[in-house]
Write a structure and sequence with these properties.
By secondary structure, the protein is α+β, with helices and mostly antiparallel strands. The protein contains 9 helices and 11 strands. Helices cover 31% and strands 18% of the residues. GO terms for molecular function: cysteine-type peptidase activity.
Length: 334
C-alpha cells in the first residue's frame, strides 16, 4: 500500500523541480530523524517534504498575521503523504459496550479553573506508536497509568504491546478503548518493561500473569459530546481516554499554540489520545492532550486543543476512564 502511494506521488510530482538550495536542509532532516531511502524513493520523498515545508512556512507567516491560533513545524511526518499519516489513526468507532457505567459528576465540588495532571505525577513519558494504528492502546494505558498512580502512589508504565497482541481488537490495524478495558478487567495488563512495544502485532499473545502491573474493575463512559461533563471528569478523576478527529487542517504538523480550526467534524473520530488537563490562555480555553507520536511532535509530544468550541474535533464524543483495582499482588510488581 505504501509503495503504491509513493509511486503515485512520484508520478504526479515528477514534473516538479526540487530546489538545490535545500540540498543541505534535506540531508540534515534525514540525519535528524534517522531516515534513509534508495535513490528513487529519496527523490519522491524529497518532493513531498519540500511541498510540506512550503505549506508549513505559508501557515506560519499567516499565523504571524494572527490568521491562525497555532504554529506548524517540521517533524518526522514531513516527508509523508496524508494517506500514510492516516494509517496511524487507528481508532475504530463502535457502539459502546454494556460493561461500562456512565459518569456522575460529584456534587458540591468547586472545579479548578486549570488542571494539569502531569504536575501531580499521574502521566508517564510521551511514547511513540510509530507507523502503527495502535493509538487506542496508548490511550488506554495512559488513563490506567494515571488511576494506578492516583490510588497506589506508584507510576508504572503499562504495556501497549500486551493489548495489541492479546485484546479482542484489530492490533496494529485499529481498535477501541472500551474493548481494551474489557480485556484488562478479565486479565490485567503487563508492565511496559516486561512486555515492550514492537510497533507490530505478533502471532502469539505473550501475556504473563506474574508480570501484571495493573488491573481494573470496570470503566466509565462520559456522555457523548458533553464537554461540560468531560471537564468535570478531568478536573476530579484524572487523565481520560478520548477519541478525536486527527484529520483536520494542520494537525499532522502541529507545533505550538492552541489548535483551533474551522473544519474538524466531531463525528469523524479517527485517533485515540489522552486528555491530561485543561486551562486558558489570553481568553482562549484549551484541553491539554497527550499524543503518542513521540516527544518531537507538537509541544514536547502534546497538543493544546480548543475547549468549549462546540466539541471541536469530537474531543468529547468518545471519552472514558478506568476504575482502578488495587491489591497487594499488583502493587508488588510496581
Amino acid at each position: 500500500m505504501i509503495r503504491y502511494i509513493l509511486l503515485s506521488s512520484f508520478i504526479s510530482l515528477s514534473f516538479a523541480l526540487s530546489y538545490p538550495e535545500l540540498n543541505s536542509a534535506w540531508r540534515t532532516y534525514k540525519k535528524v530523524y534517522g531516515k534513509s531511502y534508495n535513490p528513487m524513493e529519496d527523490a519522491s520523498r524529497r518532493i513531498i517534504w519540500e511541498n510540506n515545508v512550503a505549506r508549513i512556512l505559508k501557515h506560519n507567516l499567516e499565523a504571524d498575521l494572527k490568521l491562525h491560533s497555532f504554529k506548524m513545524e517540521i517533524n518526522h511526518l514531513t516527508d509523508k503523504v496524508p494517506q500514510e499519516y492516516f494509517m496511524m489513526n487507528g481508532l475504530r468507532m463502535t457502539n459502546r459496550t454494556n460493561s461500562s457505567t456512565y459518569f456522575l459528576a460529584p456534587s458540591n465540588v468547586e472545579f479548578p479553573t486549570q488542571k494539569d495532571w502531569r504536575k501531580e505525577g499521574l502521566v508517564t513519558e510521551v511514547k511513540n506508536q510509530k507507523n502503527c494504528g495502535s493509538c487506542w492502546a496508548f490511550s488506554v494505558t495512559g488513563s490506567l497509568e494515571g488511576q494506578h498512580k492516583k490510588k497506589s502512589g506508584k507510576l508504572v508504565s503499562l504495556s501497549e504491546q500486551n493489548l495489541v497482541d492479546c485484546s479482542e481488537n484489530f492490533g496494529y490495524a485499529g481498535g477501541t478503548m472500551d474493548v481494551a478495558f474489557d480485556y484488562i478487567k478479565l486479565h490485567g495488563i503487563d508492565t511496559e518493561e516486561s512486555y515492550p512495544y514492537l510497533s507490530k502485532k505478533q502471532h502469539w499473545c505473550y501475556f504473563k500473569k506474574e508480570k501484571v502491573g495493573a488491573t481494573l474493575t470496570g470503566y466509565v463512559d462520559i456522555p457523548t459530546g458533553n464537554e461540560k461533563e468531560l471537564f468535570k471528569a478531568v478536573a476530579t478523576v484524572g487523565p481520560v481516554s478520548v477519541g478525536i478527529n486527527a484529520k483536520g487542517y494542520g494537525f499532522m504538523h502541529y507545533g505550538s499554540g492552541i489548535y483551533e480550526v474551522d473544519e474538524c467534524d466531531p463525528r469523524n473520530i479517527s485517533h485515540a489520545v489522552l486528555l491530561v488537563g485543561y486551562g486558558s490562555e489570553n481568553g482562549k480555553d484549551y484541553w491539554i492532550v497527550k499524543n503518542s507520536w513521540g516527544p518531537n511532535w507538537g509541544e514536547n509530544g502534546y497538543i493544546r486543543m480548543a475547549r468549549n468550541k462546540n466539541n471541536m474535533c469530537g474531543i468529547a464524543s468518545m471519552a472514558s476512564y478506568p476504575l482502578f483495582k488495587s491489591s497487594e499482588k499488583f502493587l508488588f510488581f510496581c
